[in-house]
User: What shape does this take?
Amino acid sequence: KGVKKIGTKAFKSSHLEEHIFDPAFEGEIGVKAFVDTKKLKSVHIPKGAEIGASAFEESGLEELIFDPGFTGVIGEEAFAGTEQLKSVKIPKGAEIGTSAFENSGLKELTFETGFAGEIGKWAFAHSRLEELIFDPGFTGVIGVYAFAQTEKLK
Assistant: This one.
């Protein structure tokens, strides 16, 4: 019932401005499904989604919201190059792929209390991070170069 998968490059370079998935969506957001959608400003990811490699790469995202209870994978380079994205809260059940937010405009990154997942290599490298908020009881894995060359991070 409903959409099960959004295929590879399904909305590549389209003029979408917002995409709100059905909260019951439990499918895959395919490889480069929304790549280079410069007018896409907001996306709401349901808890059952799997985000493919480069799914939103180079998009115009300013707002990224994950449903409470999200336990999926944020694929390799899924949000790489999203220069307008300034803050995001990573759900405690997420797994973050290699270079998932590399070269993004992120300034503030918060990990939900209880996050114990893996942060892939180069996940936030070369971003504009200024503030990084971990739960004091963080027990996850931080990959090689995960926060490399985030020169404004203090």
Notes: The chain has no helices and 13 strands. The chain has a mean pLDDT of 93. The radius of gyration is 14 Å. Residues 73 and 95 are 5 Å apart (CA to CA).
